[in-house]
Structures are given as C-alpha cells and as structure tokens.
Amino acid sequence: MRTEPHEQEFASWLLHLNNGTSKNDYQSGEYIVEVPEKCVLKESIVEEIFGSFVFDKDNLSGKAILSPNNEYSLKIN
C-alpha cells in the first residue's frame, strides 16, 4: 500500500501492523487490532472511493472494468 508524505503516522501504523509489532495490551490471548478512527468509514465505501458519479448509468456505460483476468471481468460485465 502506498501512503502520501503527509501520512507518516498512518504509514508507521501500517508497518507495525504488517510486522506484527503493533501495540496489543489485551490479555485475552487474541490479537486485537485497533483501527484509527480516521480510517473508519461511516458512509458508503463505494462513494468514498469512486464518488457519486458511480451511480450515474450514462456515465458508466463507456467505462471498462479491470480485473486480474478475463474470467472475472466477464462475470461482472
């Protein structure tokens, strides 16, 4: 995952999460990950990523769906 230069705190959190060195004060025997509040979406993830134009059928009719192989794109299209 890429981060922007102004996202150093988030980049550090990702590295600790990936390396298994993130803070875990829970004694339950389970590894619990606390996600920063600013990373939690309260609204539609689709709108957050693609914007509201994703619901405009006329706008989407000329677009392509990219996928790792044709099998998936044929199922979606």
What does the model show?
The model has no long low-confidence stretch (mean pLDDT 78). This protein is 38% helix and 0% strand. It has helices spanning 8-19, 45-50, 57-60, 70-76. With 77 residues, the protein is mainly α.
List the main descriptive attributes of the protein structure presented here.
single chain; 77 residues; mainly alpha; elongated; ATP-dependent DNA helicase; nucleotide-binding; ATP-binding
- Contiguous uncertain segments of 5+ residues: none
Strand content: under 5%
Tally of DSSP β-strands: 0
| Order of helical and strand elements | HHHH
User: What structural class is derived from the secondary structure elements?
Assistant: mainly alpha
C-alpha end-to-end distance = 27 Å
Average pLDDT over all residues: 78
The whole-angstrom Rg is: 18 Å
Helices, by number, come to 4
Largest sheet: none
Broad shape: elongated
State the helical fraction.
25-40%
